[in-house]
User: Fold these one by one.
Assistant:
Number 1:
Amino acid sequence: MMIRIAKSSDKFHILKFCKNTFSWGDYIKDVWDHWLSEGNLLVIEKTNPIGVCHAVFSKNQVWIEGIRINSNFRRQNLASNLISKVESLAIQKQIPISLMLIDTENIPSLLMAQNLGYKINQTWKFYSLFPQENNSYEISYEKIIPNSELSHYVKSWRWIPLDDDTISSLNSKKCIVQSKKDKDPTIAILGDSEHFEKTLIVTLFTGSKNNTMNIISFLQNFGFEKKYQRLQILTKETLPEFRDLEHKISFHLMQKLLS
Ligand SMILES: CC(C)(COP(=O)(O)OP(=O)(O)OC[C@H]1O[C@@H](n2cnc3c(N)ncnc32)[C@H](O)[C@@H]1OP(=O)(O)O)[C@@H](O)C(=O)NCCC(=O)NCCS
């Protein structure tokens, strides 16, 4: 078995076994080209590639995504070897934390992660919201200040810590929307998906029910006006009932300290 950086010709072999990975299919075909150009797309091969994962290294963390092993070759430690390889690269770069996101119902993957020393750090819910004209909202674009509740935001399905630099960069891009109709504000951080067209990804920190409903109305209308096809909301809380808002999946954010 050899682990190496992926090349374009691996796409054919990898996509052959990444079609019906989950009940809804798989997204590897949609991100392969982006991930290859971003770098650190790893494959594990026997005669042909039989496993894959992508790593995104930043100053304070490595994000591991898209772990897939051909079903004929599972339970041979291949995924564990891929992850360990990424971790060793991260350690060389003195990166202290490794993170990955796992569906709360994906037991094989959760067991694998736990075996490797990952712990559940947070649990997030993914909602989809259908864009519609909706004029019953009142919001403001305002700066946020760091606080422990604002732990991460979701950028193209990668959880990024909301440290001071990230917050000031988000503030200056004016992509933070707040509802302050009553005491407990609800905050939304908006960003376009870098991998999927016309897809808005929203990290939501909920306050009062009134404020949350208000922001959801705004998002629904914003999606409609800007012609988004998909509005994806990630939040740690359970959202109130709202027409065209659907809870899809929950995820554990799994973390391992590397040093
Ligand atoms: C999850 C997945 C990547 C695991 O790949 P793998 O190469 O089979 O995993 P490993 O052989 O490294 O597993 C290591 C350990 O994890 C646990 N584990 C892995 N798969 C398991 C399963 N199906 N049932 C129970 N435990 C499992 C076991 O403890 C295993 O050690 P053991 O075989 O000595 O008991 C693979 O099943 C897969 O591709 N699934 C579909 C895609 C997916 O879910 N990806 C992860 C998204 S976050």
Number 2:
Amino acid sequence: MNIVNITIFIAIFFIGASVGSFLNVVILRNKKNEKVIGKNNRSYCPSCHGEIRFFDLIPIFSYIFLKGRCRYCRYKIPISYFLIEIITGTIFLFIFLYNYYVTQLDSNLFIITLFHYTIASFAIIIFLYDLWYGEILDKFSITLLIIVLLFEFIFFRGNIFEILISTFIGFAFFGIQFFISKGKWIGGGDLRLGAIMGAILGYNIFIALFLSYFIASMYAMPAIYKKYVKKEKVNSEIPFGPFLILGTFITIYLGDKILEFLL
Ligand SMILES: [Zn+2]
């Protein structure tokens, strides 16, 4: 671990944090139906509408220097901004370290890492949008599906037949539940997410589905306990998308290890 490496790692973390800051803007502006990029579309404070200058847009640092408040009106900036920057930076650094040290990619390190960054960015948007607004927007899910399939057809490493089958499996797995429950158990967005999982993971999609349901049931335990044991009223509707994304993320980087362990 030398000084050059550490500098590169810090730089990658901050690129990730900047991307996280941008993803946050994409989510909020999509919710409000505003354009993400445009001439008169500078960032502004949602409270006093004061324009946020470039020196207040430095990821992580600006939030710390401004102590989490607007420079003009002292409006409290949600801590989620800060957390998303840190988490995205961490994910970007993790992906790079994984591809460099674990997979030991050489000539295709750059293109594969870029591919993983693209998947991660879309996944973060879909994760948070579903978590906050209970909805998976087609423009994010279908765009990601097309990008993943195109990338695999162009740069593919193995069996395209497997990818097409697993994409269909992911789609059908949720399609059947959607059909049986007439859309009550899961939303239409989960069908597209299922297809994306298959396209990314191949037959490892089964590991991801297992993990997603496992994590979701762990998460739901306290609510189930309150509802059925203590007979309290609970809001039992939780979006499933975030769990699918968590399961997929773990499977991309640990799927083969989990499979080895199970067999
Ligand atoms: Zn303000």
Number 3:
Amino acid sequence: MTAARIRLQINHRAVEVVAGSSVAAAVAVAQSSPVFRRSTTGQPRAAFCGMGACFECRVRIDGVGQQRACMVPAREGMQVISDE
Ligand code: FES
């Protein structure tokens, strides 16, 4: 049995993930060294806790900024922008 898959866009590139994956997982699939956002000094930041506590995984999802990627399920057609 093959798991259902969905397609979404990460920084304007199509990514396919298993249905039920988080947006954080999709960003990790899309980038070899995932960068979710940049600090105020420009340092790359990535998901750390994976449970909504650290806020390091914030991205823009469907035009709404500051979304915690680890807390949002990936959906078909979603548009995600990170500070790659
Ligand atoms: S990884 Fe910590 S809030 Fe998302």
Number 4:
Amino acid sequence: MATGVPRSPIRSVSDSPPITLGYPGKKPAEEILATTPGIFEHVPTPNANMRKRLYFAENLSVLTSLAQDPGVCGKVRLVYIDPPFATQTVFHSRKLAHAYEDVFEGADYLEFMRERLILLHRLLADDGSIYVHLDAKMVFHIKILMDEIFGAGNFRNYITRKKSNPKNYTRNQYGNIADYILFYTKSANYVWNKQVEPWTEERAREYQYVDPATGRRYMKVPVHAPGVRNGETGKPWRGMMPPPGKHWQFPPSTLDEMDARGEIYWSKNGNPRRKVYLDESPGVSVQDIWLDYRDAHNQMVHISGYPTEKNINLLRRIVEASSNPGDIVLDCFAGSGTTLVAADSLGRDWIGVDNSPEAMRTMLHRFEHGTEPMGDFVGKQTPKRKATDTPLFAEPLPAENSKPVCCEVSDFTLFASPDLASALRSMTLTHQAEPVKRDGKARSAKAEA
Ligand SMILES: C[S@@+](CC[C@H](N)C(=O)[O-])C[C@H]1O[C@@H](n2cnc3c(N)ncnc32)[C@H](O)[C@@H]1O
């Protein structure tokens, strides 16, 4: 395995001149930050809670307004966005309702994204994080814009997600089953709850040795690491120097203690290796390739029916890793509300924005009734319903059906821009849903993934 040694002293990214992206129509950041804030009408809901806000509006106007709100500006712990990808596509729901249009391209698309990213940077807390979900088409351009706005030194990961099963591709190129998530933080000190994947029997096979005395499974790993050190870890241990170009992972006194506890394995040639026990490891640290979060891929997966809806467990991982209970999570391209439901189920407050009527209808229905198995949408252009079914959102309710079957989110406040407020009023909740008690602990993700 190749081992690189960081050069010393380590040069920070900020020491090098920044790389910027030039395109026509790129405005000064000050001009974007000075955009006139939007004004919104409050639309009543049964259990209004200002800590959870859903806006039916153009998101630039909402972000500029939130930038003036001292309760939000600089206090958002996590932003996740899944914006249009510049695909030149019109999206429809599973029930063939028009959802949204992804028609910006080139410089117009870049400036549309940059305006929102600059405001999102302003809204983030100093220890906040942002995840931007994109596909291969624009991810490189947006990476450069994010380096400009968040600082290249605050880039954390370029996550590759497997979004679907292999396709029977007819074009003369490789199948396309990946999309990408850019993860940045606002500073070097950020909320981070390490995520681990539990052991599977296959992964645990790496722990191929068994301690004869205890029966514990372990693997052997080096006791040295790349790079020369002049301190304790560069000194001889048991008469041995670290291999050339390396240093001990621990000071010699600690290595002595580990050896006394039986944690060092000595080869026949007298080379030390460290024993790492399976039962002491909670699992494998999550890496930057995510294979287990495909979007709806079989008939049993629960979905909202909104196009481009993301896997709820993908969002639960991001929310758990980069926020804590009580924090504000923001998604200004909310779609079917996956981020908002994930955040709510984990005891976070949230702010969601979308300007599509179908997205609003979907979110309000989802909050009240949850999702449905994908199979139930097949061949169903108008929903087949029995008289005994729970009524669809906004249908008049018979008295005996006044409780929702599944209430995912029940206490939130609705806002709309003046031009959309009356449309939103015609959609608002018909059920007097009970507020869901939250304790910050994860609820089961049902059969959604
Ligand atoms: C890819 S979808 C998001 C899907 C979402 N992640 C989910 O899991 O359902 C993008 C959403 O952004 C919304 N959108 C696009 N431009 C917008 C804008 N300027 N203001 C508000 N919403 C916008 C669209 O209506 C669409 O619902």
